[in-house]
Design a protein that fits this description.
Elements (H helix, E strand, L loop, with lengths): L6 H16 L4 H15 L4 E7 L4 E8 L10 E3 L3 H9 L3 E3 L21 E9 L2 E10 L7 H19 L19 E4 L1 E4 L2 E8 L14 H25 L9 H11 L2 H12 L4 H17 L4 H22 L14 E5 L4 H6 L5 E6 L7 H9 L3 E3 L4 H4 L5 E5 L4 E4 L3 H23 L14 E6 L5 H7 L4 E5 L1 H6 L6 H15 L4 E4 L27 H6 L1 H14 L4 E6 L5 H20 L7 E8 L8 H7 L2 E4 L1 H9 L17 H17 L3 E3 L7 H10 L3 E4 L1 H13 L2 H13 L8 H10 L5
Parallel strand pairs: 9-10, 10-11, 11-12, 15-16, 15-22, 16-17, 17-18, 18-19, 19-20, 20-21, 21-22
Antiparallel strand pairs: 1-2, 1-6, 2-3, 4-5, 5-6, 7-14, 8-12, 9-13, 13-14
Helix pairs in contact: 1-2, 1-4, 5-6, 5-7, 5-9, 6-9, 7-8, 8-9, 13-24, 14-16, 16-18, 18-19, 20-22, 23-24, 23-25
Bound molecules: phosphoenolpyruvate (PEP) and magnesium ion (MG).
């Protein structure tokens, strides 16, 4: 049976629904009225609304046409029957002969066997399935495209009603609706710690107050204007080449631009508006369908493109609503757990540290810079949590465990109390670590290990005293540059370096010269596009090619260190010759000090980061001319295994405790010992207790790590016997047995020796 004319059809339906939504009646009465209106408008004998419960079952919440006794009685599992199939696939189902469909499942209490035609659509919000809306007719008929569209639009109104929490009142005790269900998600550990708090979406979801349009003509105009505006802003961003701003890459913006001109997307938006929705409700509806597809998409490429489309729709939505894209700091709750798809270190630093209890990201691996900053701030953080931004609502209760990479959304009371207990135990353990503060890290068999701190921001400096670190083993100077709006002036650099030296007092500080390029992008410094930035123009390569920047930095470091001891190291040195050239620049700056009558530092030492495999084959020569070596295990492992440190799919593929990296690490330590210079390690590897013990066994006597690692690593060192561990590792490396990694042997050794790991 055909639809009535445009005005009599979907728009009239939406107008009637709006009236019902405004009536001061109870939730069940409202739902009952809604199904009657839909059935009448669609000339269907039946309209039923099934709600997804937290236990994954669909429950009949209202019906016109089926037996009333079935309401809140009839249930279906996801995948069971036609309704369950719609829920599983999140796609409409339009059948003229429903009873002969293989998925048809008969529920006697509903009396539905007399209905032949069936149209069902998913009720979606942010891509999540909340329910299923169905109309049925006795006669065999095929519902038109317009009718499918109209029912989907209606489903959106129901989704909003569900989201408002109104229908929760109809759920029976213990059978919450899915929207409020507890979720347990896993990810990847970025920064240790337990955080209990409430969700703050870094890019808050727009709350749409008005779903149903008063005047579709003007809504269409608003939509077209916002689309044009969005396209113009993308063109501008791409033309200006101001790409690094906001951390976007050209490729992503190009994809956005392509989607912004996509006729299919625009048609769907226009159709949704024509069916009677406001422009923003139309964007949300199309976005929700898209997300539902994205969640069911397994091809990583397509999924990524759907993600891009989702982000583009989000921008359009913010444009329509005139809202900021990023969460307002003023509205931050006292225990904020920030959720984002991805985020740069500067954005994280913008949040009030006193209120920040945790960070959850859809992207971002453990050696990404946001992770490094989270660790510096001491904020528990979990990365690679699939789709988390769609699964939470602002203000939801949430618990994260950064150590085990667990995220509990809307936790049940038992989970909550278990974590409160865990947080208490942690605090107790932290107290024990604090008591170790002034205890030197010496193994049971008398090997002393200096534990230094990795730092890079003012916020880190308090940790030097708190942890009792032996010094700052790696000061990442680029962080000051990364969080700044524009290139920090020499005076600002001098000021920071002085503060660091002051905070360290008599303890040594190793400053690393700018390590930019690769994934560390400076918005104000255009380095050009690269196919392969990790292997590109970065770190000391920029320093040598454009010595102005390096010279200015060295000058700032030397001035800040006048009369004091300073250690400086160069990142990404690939050949001994590069070190000589960097040292020449340094010597020129020393001469500059003399020429201009500045006081020299009392002592300077120049070191090299060992993080490019080519240097391994010149390591003995290198050790003879540098004052010290420092292994950057994050990059060294990335380049050794040719496995991107930021790519989650690579995160567990290769183990640093496998024979090859262990031999490499030993080779570097041996070269240092032979040349009589100190060798330290400052990558994330040294901050893990088991790995730290292995490094000590391989000959490392100094490790540098994030502040939270010092306590646990020290506790492990204090209880370990290193000689037997060294013999075990050496024997395992020598015996030629087939092993993927020595980790199980080393872990078994640690367990047998009762090491607190
Ligand atoms: C490393 O590569 O291990 C390192 C310490 O440097 P970054 O993580 O800053 O690249
Ligand atoms: Mg590095």
């Amino acid at each position: 049976m055909p639809m009535r004319g445009a005005l009599g059809g979907p728009r009239l339906l939406l107008r009637r629904l709006r009236e019902v939504m405004a009536e001061p009646v109870g939730a069940q009465v409202r739902l009952d009225k809604i199904v009657v209106i839909i059935a009448a408008n669609m000339v269907a004998e039946v309209c039923s609304f099934y709600v997804m419960r937290a236990d994954g079952t669909l429950e009949l919440f209202a019906t016109e046409g089926l037996k009333r006794e079935a309401v809140h009685v009839t249930t279906m599992r996801q995948g069971e029957g036609l309704v369950g199939m719609i829920a599983a696939e999140a796609e409409p189902l339009n059948l003229s002969d429903a009873q002969n469909h293989p998925a048809y499942s008969y529920k006697p209490e509903t009396g539905e066997e007399i209905y032949q035609s069936f149209l069902g659509v998913p009720v979606l919000r942010a891509g999540n399935l909340l329910g299923v809306l169905v109309v049925q007719n006795r006669a065999s008929r095929t519902y038109s495209e317009e009718e499918v569209e109209a029912l989907q639009t209606t489903a959106m109104v129901l989704a909003e009603m569900l989201a408002s929490g109104e229908l929760q009142a109809l759920a029976r005790p213990g059978q919450d609706i899915a929207l409020r269900k507890s979720l347990h998600l896993g990810g990847q550990s970025l920064a240790d710690g337990v955080g209990l708090g409430h969700v703050v979406l870094h890019e808050p979801r727009v709350v749409i107050g008005n779903i149903i349009a008063d005047d579709p003509g003007s809504e269409l105009k608003r939509l077209e204007e916002s689309l044009a505006d969005l396209r113009a802003s993308l063109d501008q961003l791409l033309d200006r080449g101001d790409l690094a701003h906001g951390g976007e890459h050209r490729e992503v913006l190009e994809t956005f631009r392509m989607f912004a001109h996509d006729p299919g997307w625009m048609r769907r938006l226009r159709e949704a508006v024509t069916s009677g929705l406001t422009a923003e409700a139309a964007v949300e509806r199309v976005q929700s369908d898209n997300r539902a597809r994205m969640l069911r998409q397994t091809d990583p490429y397509l999924r990524e493109r759907l993600h891009d489309l989702d982000e583009l729709a989000n921008r359009l939505l913010h444009r329509l609503m005139g809202q900021e894209l990023v969460a307002k700091q003023s509205a931050l709750p006292d225990n904020a757990i920030v959720i984002a798809r991805s985020m740069g270190p500067a954005a994280l630093l913008d949040y009030d540290r006193a209120k920040l209890r945790g960070l959850v990201l859809e992207e971002g691996g453990p050696t990404s810079h946001i992770a490094i900053v989270a660790r510096a701030l001491g904020i528990p953080a979990v990365g690679n949590v699939d789709n988390v931004t769609s699964l939470v609502e602002t203000g939801d209760a949430i618990i994260i465990d950064g150590g085990t990479a667990d995220v509990h959304i809307r936790p049940q009371p038992d989970v909550e109390s278990a974590f409160a207990e865990k947080a208490r135990l942690r605090a107790k353990r932290q107290e024990q670590y604090r008591r170790l503060r002034d205890v030197p890290a010496v193994t049971q068999d008398g090997v002393t290990v200096d534990l230094h701190l990795n730092a890079g921001l003012i916020v880190d400096l308090a940790h030097i005293d708190e942890t009792g670190a032996a010094g700052v083993g790696l000061f990442r100077t680029e962080l000051q540059f990364m969080v700044a709006e524009k290139l920090p002036r020499t005076n600002e650099q001098i000021e920071l370096y002085r503060k660091v030296l002051d905070a360290a007092g008599s303890r040594p500080v190793t400053f690393r010269t700018l390590d930019i390029g690769g994934d560390k992008v400076l918005p104000y410094l255009l380095t050009g596009e690269e196919e392969n930035p990790a292997l590109g123009w970065r770190a000391i390569r920029i320093g040598l090619d454009r010595p102005g920047l390096l010279r200015a930095q060295l000058r700032a470091l030397l001035k800040a260190a006048s009369g004091r001891h300073v250690k400086i190291m160069f990142p990404m040195i690939s050949t001994v010759d590069e070190f000589h050239r960097a040292r020449d620049i340094f010597e020129r700056e020393m001469a500059y000090l003399t020429r201009h009558g500045y006081e020299h530092p009392a002592q300077t030492q120049l070191g090299v980061m060992v993080e490019v495999p080519s240097l391994l084959f010149e390591i003995e020569e290198m050790a003879r001319c540098a004052d010290f070596l420092s292994v950057g295990s994050n990059d060294l492992m990335q380049f050794l295994f040719a496995a991107d440190r930021e790519n989650p799919a690579m995160a567990h593929r290769f183990d640093p405790l496998a024979p090859a990296p262990l031999r490499v690490l030993k080779h570097i330590a041996d070269a240092g010992r032979k040349a009589g210079i100190p060798v330290t390690l400052c990558g994330e590897l040294g901050g893990k207790p088991l790995e730290a013990l292995v490094l000590v066994a391989l000959g490392y006597r100094a490790l540098s790590m994030s502040p939270a690692s010092i306590g646990p690593v020290k506790a492990a060192i204090l209880s370990a016997q290193i000689a037997p561990l060294r013999m075990m590792i050496e024997a395992a490396l020598a015996d030629g047995r087939r092993v993927t990694t020595l980790r199980p042997d080393i872990a078994a050794f640690a367990a047998a020796h009762d090491l607190p790991l």
